Amino acid sequence: MSTYSAIGSFSPGSVSTLQKVTVPKPTPTGRDILVRVKAVSVNPVDYKVRSSRSPTGDAPVIVGWDAAGIVESVGEDAKFYKAGDEVYFAGAIGRDGSNGDYALVDERIVGNKPSSLSFEQAAAYPLVSLTAWEALVEQAHIAIPQDTTQDLSLLIINGAGGVGSIAIYIASKILKIKNIIATASRPETIDWVKKLGATHVVNHHEPIKPQLESQALGSSVDYVFVAHDTDAYFDKAVELAKPFGHIIFINPSSKPVQIDSLFQKSLALSFEFMFAKSATGHLIHTQRTILNSIGRHLDAEPSSSSLVTKSYKFNLANLREAQQQVEESKVFGKVVLTLDEENWD
Q1: Is this structure's pTM higher than 0.90?
Q2: Fold annotation for 3-124+278-338
Q3: Would you give per-residue pLDDT tens digits along the chain (345 residues)?
Q4: Is 282 exposed, middle or buried (0-12, 13-18, 19+ CB in 10 A)?
Q5: Torsion sign, CA atoms 119, 272, 323, 170
Q6: CATH number for the domain whose boundaries are 129-271
Q7: Under DSSP, is residue 200 helix (H, G, I), strand (E, B) or coil?
């Protein structure tokens, strides 16, 4: 039986549970494609699944839901890709992740790798791009204009995080929103969000409303996108949203929330879960469309096309370190690991 190397765990817990494993190499069937992984990036979902999911039977839990690579083979019903195509994808949370030599993924949630990006750069985009696009375009229904700037205001909580970073890019370059306010507090993160297209910056460690007012933005905004802890920001988001505005969260709440405050202002509330489409099969094909759309925009402006702030060679020690950094919120942008052609021991 053909096998491949990956990094996984046989019990939930800290990064110390991760180990190099050898697992059966799958053969794609149906709409699946088998991708030779060239680079992966790390997201909070990695440590959340690693610390909570128990293996099924003898198979380890392999996380990692951001990758770029080359198609090796395709299932009999695949029609979008062929062997040799360069692709990028986030994958499905109910299946093995991409932290290894190969990943099996449904072609309908895979995009063509932007030609202007390296595998390392491309691996930083899929999960966060899908999350931000679905939140702003599908959930909040912000229209994509042709050329004109939209006289709207968008507040992005956790602007320097992975989702916040690409949300700023999408809001600036694609949605052309006039006022894009990002939260950041350190000099390096303030510079980062401005580079990506934020027109204003507020410090999330201080009351936000006075900072909006001091920058002539009024006391509230049309859209509040919370790419952080829902419990910590629910009441604040309601306070900062304009009447008839829209609030979007990307994390579940761990406690009951008071929705009467939404009612009083006729606010719309959305929760965005990037894996919902692959988990339910509903609108699954749209993720390929989104990734290809993002890719075209990135290719049009390659000079502004990197979310990578830290990069490592893919191996066990480095993956443990990368996941630990993300878990402790020690990074901004994205952390990426690249796989060499040779063995990555």
Answers
A1: yes
A2: Quinone Oxidoreductase; Chain A, domain 1 (3.90.180)
A3: 799 999 999 999 999 999 999 999 999 999 999 999 999 999 999 999 999 999 988 899 999 999 999 999 999 999 999 999 999 999 999 999 999 999 999 999 999 999 999 999 999 999 999 999 999 999 999 999 988 999 999 999 999 999 999 999 999 999 999 999 999 999 999 999 999 999 999 999 999 999 999 999 999 999 999 999 999 999 999 999 999 999 999 999 988 888 888 999 999 999 999 999 999 999 999 999 999 999 999 999 876 668 999 999 999 999 999 999 999 988 999 999 999 866 677
A4: exposed
A5: positive
A6: 3.40.50.720
A7: strand
